[in-house]
Sequence to fold (294 residues):
Amino acid sequence: CIGLKKIAILKADVDDLGEIFKEGIDIEYKTFSSLATFSRFLDWFFKIYINWLGDIEKGLKQNINETQYFLKAEFENSLRWRKKFKKPKRDIQILYSGGDDLVVIGPWNEIIDFALDLEWLFKKYVGENPNLHFSAGMVIVDKKFPIYKAIELAEERLKEAKNNEGKESAGVFESSPIKWKDLKNSLNDFTDLIEEIRETKKENKTEKKATIKIPKTVLHKILEIKSRFDELKDLRCIIYLHYLLARNEKIRNNKIFKEYFSLERDIQNKGRLKVCSKFQFINFPLIWLDYLSR
Fold:
């Protein structure tokens, strides 16, 4: 476990599966055999292919038929969205996986990586069908926290994610649910900083904390101001962030922060200033950075 010494529970399941069975298959193809085939293929993903994400080397050695070869080739080439899988097996435990849902436990950072890879692999498995997707809820708890209770909390976060417009969302950290693509994009923007901490932790295993270019006090201040902006919708909060950015030489020239704190014209509102659309997602990479550096 890198950084924060806590574990996470992830609960996920496919969105609107009942509606897919009811309305998603053309009437001329809606037979008992076609429904059974669809159900079986879905079950295969959660019973077989999900193991590729748990044990990479074992998964890549599995014998598969020709129709599945493309999926395996894609997986072997990409491995995950950040393309930096550096160990053959994750430190996670799949408590349950079958049907259309799963429950997984492990170090918090491993679970988030697993969730992102799971979403990517599922999209490949269903042929990038925009109507087939899933949502997930995750909670981070102390190692001594009762597992059954943690699963109940993860279920609550999953319900929040499914209540997000359009679903296809993740409830992670203490923030509101976020779309998978927005979560990936925001974390990808901060990849260099995240990977820098990972590598520092690995190289200095004896050190309790990793060095970070951005002071933790600044991280916490940004998160505090973001929370205040969400509550008040006051652009003065953004102005204060620019002041904070200018005062700190370590992040003054950081292009990512400048981009996230930028203001733009709202064409639909008489050209008035509004925050950059990316700003609403800054919680996730900053909380990740905070947890990794602990």
